[in-house]
């Protein structure tokens, strides 16, 4: 990694921390005064818009040309920033900021740069709508009052930052390995988590928005402060119509997509060849999302145009990746997109009997409901492990649950382990993990000089860890991939509802029994370095002293949202925790920056040889309960019931 001097790093910070509403307001005034070229006269820049993508590509090409002409990194970045500042006032500021961030993100491994958090960069855009409504007596335009029960989740600042930054990393300018497939997988996982959250809170199941001739039944008003950003309109009322010409186009494209699916246009040559399936999904999803893997079809960028058609109803938040999640319609539109993926995947045959079973064994039985239950999947809250240190996890597991205790079971209760210093310490196992809400405060000064103070709530959970007892039955030393998933138990036969929690490599000696330890903070899903508290972000620039910093690494699921809400009733909500062991499918280890599952590794092959979401990338075959039966029948799979209780 190349270091740049602190003055230049501070300049980058200040550029992104600048008060953007002023720039947007000035640009609008120039448009009104006819001082902006017609092709640059954008009212709301959106990277979902094909024409805006092309404008961004031109700006990024200018940056790359300037960068390549300089003798060293510091001079190159300085000149790129000069070019950025020279363009301010002549092109839309959000177009320029987007282009600069995409450029810097692509060069991030070459540079030691920290960008400010979304709390600093776009403070108006992270304000909770409900708090705004209460403070300013605003009548929220929502289709159903119960939808506001999910505001805490949809409007979570770091969740929206994740989505915004994902679309920076997976952009249309720099080709990423398996980008189309990643678009499908990451958004399907977001949907699975969102629907589990709705289920726990007690809201009706989500329905897709697939026909734009039907008025948008649910409205969304983000509150007055988000409008101070000069980026959005006044909100969308209930039952707002989409322009007829847009609705006609969307319907025409949808029918064309469905026709091409039914004709087999995107089918892999061999439905059981993983490489062929990956390539086929990458092509189909890349076409829907408009990534380089896609083909040129009339409906290329169908997903992005849908965002734009909906956002055109009064410049809504749907046009901007870092705010789109706030609106209920985002999830309804993406459920429709996922339905198209499922329609294509239904042409693939269900998973056959698993043939590439590694030589491993995880023991299990069947509980009273006929679902698998494994005593080899042990869960602990880390605050209930005496003298817990993450680096001692494997030793703790082997002492507490392995060796001569291998055949013992450990239901919820108190046990002991021998620490490295020889002392006996306490450890408790659990069948219930707790979630809860916390409150954080943010302050900022608006572009009009007014001080704002807001409280917002966010979901959090007790830190926890897994201990997995695994037997290597091979006479050879082996390396395996451990894959962990959860799902509301009532949905366990729906492959679309399973939530990926982690995947990682383990090394095992020949003919060995090993207790595998894994902490929640190590999850391949969450952003690294882990931010335990959303309120922990740099409010001011500090000189770069470390190669890794939470503010430099923004790609990945927020740690505090790793667990779903669960239920606040009774014992909580019953989930099924499932583990599957496959061969050494992961190429490399978990990166220290970002998320292996959702972000891959920069400028390298996606580090999993199997289709994303495997084995839930397609339905299972056979019987009334094919998924549960497969878990029962195969030695490399196991599951248990886990309750998630909101307290």
Q: For the report, how would you describe the main beta sheet?
A: 6 strands, mixed
Number of helices: 18
The level of helicity is: 25-40%
User: What is the assigned CATH homologous superfamily of the largest domain?
Assistant: Di-copper center containing domain from catechol oxidase
Oligomer: single chain
For this structure, what is the CATH class of the largest domain?
Mainly Alpha
Number of E-type strands: 14
Number of domains: 3
CATH architecture of the largest domain, by name, is Orthogonal Bundle
Low-pLDDT residue intervals, each spanning 5 or more residues: 132-143
Structural class based on helices, strands and sheet pairing: alpha+beta
Strand content: 15-25%
Mean pLDDT: 89
Q: For the largest beta sheet, what order do the strands appear in spatially?
A: 8-7-14-13-10-11
Distance between the termini: 45 Å
The outline comes out as: globular
CATH structural fold name of the largest domain: di-copper center containing domain from catechol oxidase
Rounded Rg:
25 Å
Structure, explained:
This protein is an alpha+beta fold and 647 residues long. It has three domains: 1-113, no CATH class; 125-347, di-copper center containing domain from catechol oxidase (Orthogonal Bundle); 360-379 and 464-646, Hemocyanin, C-terminal domain (Immunoglobulin-like), CATH 2.60.40. The chain is 33% helix and 16% strand. It contains 18 helices and 14 strands. The protein has helices at 6-16, 20-32, 50-68, 73-87, 93-106, 118-121, 129-136, 151-154, 157-169, 179-201, 224-227, 244-262, 274-289, 302-311, 328-345, 393-401, 596-599, 626-633; strands at residues 360-361, 365-366, 372-373, 377-381, 413-418, 424-429, 432-445, 451-461, 464-472, 478-488, 499-508, 513-519, 573-582, 637-646. It has a six-stranded mixed beta sheet with strand order 8-7-14-13-10-11. Strands 1, 4, 9 and 12 form a four-stranded antiparallel beta sheet that branches. Strands 2-3 form a two-stranded antiparallel sheet. Helix 10 (179-201) packs across helix 13 (274-289). The longest helix is centred in the N-terminal third of the chain and has 23 residues, at 179-201. Residues 132-143 have low confidence and may be disordered.
């Amino acid at each position: 990694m190349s270091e740049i001097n602190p003055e230049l790093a501070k300049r980058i910070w200040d550029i992104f921390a600048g008060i953007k509403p002023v720039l947007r307001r000035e640009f609008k005034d120039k448009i009104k005064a006819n001082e902006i070229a017609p092709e640059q006269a954008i009212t709301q820049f959106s990277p979902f818009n094909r024409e805006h993508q092309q404008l961004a590509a031109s700006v990024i090409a200018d940056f790359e040309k300037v960068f390549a002409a300089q003798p060293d990194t510091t001079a190159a970045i300085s000149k790129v920033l000069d070019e950025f500042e020279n363009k301010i006032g002549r092109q839309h500021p959000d177009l320029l900021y987007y282009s600069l961030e995409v450029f810097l993100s692509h060069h991030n491994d070459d540079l030691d740069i920290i960008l400010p958090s979304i709390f600093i960069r776009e403070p108006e855009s992270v304000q909770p709508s409900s708090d705004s409504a209460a403070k300013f007596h605003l009548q929220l335009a929502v289709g159903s009052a119960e939808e506001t029960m999910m505001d805490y989740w949809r409007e979570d600042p770091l969740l929206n930052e994740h989505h915004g930054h994902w679309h920076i990393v997976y952009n249309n300018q720099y080709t990423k390995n398996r980008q189309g497939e990643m678009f499908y997988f990451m958004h399907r996982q977001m949907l699975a988590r969102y629907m589990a959250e709705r289920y726990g809170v007690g809201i009706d199941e989500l329905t897709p928005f697939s026909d734009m001739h039907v008025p948008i039944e649910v409205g969304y008003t983000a509150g007055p402060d988000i409008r101070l950003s000069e980026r959005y309109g006044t909100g969308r009322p209930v039952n707002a119509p989409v322009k007829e010409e847009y609705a006609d186009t969307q319907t025409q494209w949808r029918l064309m997509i469905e026709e091409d699916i039914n004709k087999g246009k995107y089918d892999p040559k061999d439905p059981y060849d993983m490489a062929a399936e990956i390539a086929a999904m990458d092509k189909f999803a890349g076409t829907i999302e408009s990534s380089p893997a896609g083909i040129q079809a009339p409906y290329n960028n169908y997903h992005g145009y849908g965002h734009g058609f909906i956002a055109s109803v009064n410049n809504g938040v749907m046009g901007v990746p870092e705010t789109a999640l706030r609106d209920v319609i985002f999830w309804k539109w993406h459920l429709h997109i996922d339905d198209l993926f499922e329609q294509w995947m239904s042409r693939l045959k269900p998973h056959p009997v698993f043939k590439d079973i590694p030589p491993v064994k995880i023991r299990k039985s069947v509980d009273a409901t006929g679902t698998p239950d494994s005593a080899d999947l042990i869960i602990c809250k880390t605050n209930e492990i005496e003298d817990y240190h993450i680096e001692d996890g494997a030793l703790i597991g082997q002492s507490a649950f392995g060796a001569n205790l291998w055949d013992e079971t450990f239901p919820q209760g108190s046990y002991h382990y021998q620490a490295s210093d020889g002392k006996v310490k306490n450890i408790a196992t659990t069948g219930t993990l707790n979630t809860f809400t916390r409150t954080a405060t943010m302050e900022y000064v608006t572009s009009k000089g007014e001080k704002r103070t807001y409280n917002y709530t966010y979901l959090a959970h007790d830190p926890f860890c897994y201990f997995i007892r695994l037997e290597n039955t091979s006479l050879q030393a082996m390396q395996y991939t451990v894959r962990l998933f959860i799902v509301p138990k009532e949905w366990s036969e729906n492959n679309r509802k399973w939530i990926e929690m982690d995947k990682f490599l383990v090394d095992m000696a020949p003919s060995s029994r090993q207790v595998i330890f894994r902490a929640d903070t190590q999850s391949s899903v969450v952003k690294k370095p882990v931010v335990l508290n959303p309120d922990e972000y740099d409010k001011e620039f500090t000189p770069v002293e470390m190669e890794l910093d939470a503010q430099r690494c923004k790609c990945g699921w927020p740690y505090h949202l790793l667990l779903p809400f669960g239920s606040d009733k009774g014992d909580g909500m019953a989930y099924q925790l499932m583990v599957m062991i496959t061969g050494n499918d992961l190429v490399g280890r978990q990166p220290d920056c970002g998320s292996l599952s959702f972000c891959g590794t920069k400028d390298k092959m996606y580090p999993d040889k199997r289709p994303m979401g495997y084995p839930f990338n397609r339905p299972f075959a056979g019987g009334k309960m094919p998924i549960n039966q497969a878990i029962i029948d195969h030695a490399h799979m196991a599951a248990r019931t886990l309750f998630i209780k909101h307290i």
